[in-house]
Design goal:
Length: about 425
């Protein structure tokens, strides 16, 4: 049975992979290399050192190298936008704390003490953002990755081979044959070679790995942070292991065994094999970053489903009625105000998520978002913008300062 159906007997934990580590070829997906830009400085440095120590056993499909180089600026810009978002949140919270009307239960002494802390946080973040932005030019991450994989990158497919893959890929995706079928909408209606290469990027990586392993490896450990179901098998949102179809096809076409792991699992294995001492917090950080690459492209869009914008309008109407009795009366209801403000803040943060999705075409590609899910998210965002705009107008009737808050206008600039 195991010989007939190898895909259903996959090894998928650190203990099992440790047994096959020696002698296996280490193949890395684009997500692993792009995530190097998302780590803290210390974690990034340690991960790069491990790659350098294992370069003898490492290899990259040509498509991975291409995606890494052409997509790295988009990842860097995405990280810079995270700095901007955090800075905006800090400055808004700092502004909120300055207002004794918004937080009447925070003492003036504590507000004064917090001012210095916020100033230090903002200053350090702005400095770190400046340093990070310099990677757009002289990129040491790119250079060190290039050194690790010097002479370790596969050949590019020629034009005719790619056309054949595009044609066969359409049939594979219709049948939901892994990998890549979750990217079926990436090219939209475009037939341009560049767009089709994005749509079938995972399939190209897969076939290039098979072609290389056929003559150069008895077993492959494929390291990826792609969480989609065209790479992994799931049962009720629980990841069971590599997609059985992948292991089966790899065995049939390459005559080799396929094993898969995430970046944090790779780090733990490498730490053991290289006798390295790494803090647990470092592995936790890598694991957390890996979770940031969604396995479900519709997850964000679904977060907006069932949200009735009238809920906010009704609440705002109630506060308008309350405010008609004067600001003093409104302030007596501080607990209700704070709860209402917190609820609005929660939806404001969801709005920021929609903003991030709407702001960057590169992010659409990285997340594997379908056109449908993007439109659904943007539609929900538009509803939210209207509500948040009403909030700003109506809350202003209380005489409470709105300085430091990002209005709906901030979200509109991201549509490219």
């Amino acid at each position: 049975m195991r010989n007939r159906f190898p895909g259903h007997f996959a090894k998928n934990n650190v203990v099992d992979l440790s047994d096959v580590w020696d002698g296996s070829l280490l193949v890395f997906d684009t997500s692993i290399l792009h995530n190097l830009y998302r780590y803290s400085d210390d974690t990034r440095e340690e991960f790069l050192k491990i790659l350098e120590e294992l370069k003898e056993f490492a290899w990259l499909p040509n498509r991975v190298a291409e995606e890494f180089l052409t997509g790295r600026n988009g990842v860097i810009e995405e990280e810079l936008s995270r700095y901007d978002s955090l800075l905006r949140d800090l400055k808004r919270t700092q502004s909120d704390l300055k207002s004794r009307y918004r937080h009447p239960f925070v003492s003036e002494d504590l507000r004064d003490k917090s001012e210095g802390v916020f100033n230090d946080l903002v200053s350090e973040l702005e400095e770190n953002k400046t340093n990070f932005a310099q990677k757009l030019g002289g990129d040491y991450v790119r250079d060190r990755v290039a050194n690790v994989f010097d002479g370790k990158v596969g050949y590019e497919y020629d034009h005719d081979t790619l056309l054949d893959i595009f044609k066969k890929g359409e049939d594979r995706y219709k049948e939901r044959t892994p990998p890549g079928f979750k990217d079926a909408n990436k090219s939209g209606t475009s037939d341009a070679k560049k767009d089709l290469a994005r749509k079938f990027g995972d399939l190209i990586i897969w076939l290039q790995t098979i072609d290389y392993a056929r003559d150069n490896a008895d077993s492959v450990i494929f390291v990826t942070d792609d969480n989609k179901e065209d790479w992994w098998e799931f049962a009720k949102d629980k990841k069971l292991g590599p997609h059985p179809g992948l292991i089966q096809e790899f065995k049939e076409l390459a005559g080799a065994d396929l094993f898969m792991c995430k970046s944090d699992e790779f780090l733990e294995l490498a730490r053991e094999k290289l006798d390295e001492t790494l803090p647990a917090s470092m592995v936790d950080e890598v694991r957390e970053v890996s979770r940031g690459i969604p396995g479900d492209p519709d997850a964000v869009a679904r977060a907006f489903e069932g949200v009735d914008p009238n809920i906010f309008e009704n609440e705002i109407g109630a506060w308008e009625e309350l405010a008609s009795g004067g600001l003093g009366k409104a302030l007596k209801e501080a607990n209700k105000w704070n709860q209402f403000y917190s609820d609005l803040e929660a939806y404001d943060r969801i709005g920021q998520m929609a903003d991030s999705l709407n702001a960057s075409k590169n992010m659409f590609d990285n997340l594997g978002l379908s056109e449908k899910s993007v439109l659904r998210a943007i539609e929900a965002q538009s509803r939210l913008n209207q509500v948040m705009g009403n909030r700003s107008a109506n809350i202003g009737k209380f005489g409470v300062s709105q300085s430091g808050e990002s209005g709906s206008g901030d979200r509109e600039k991201g549509d490219e």
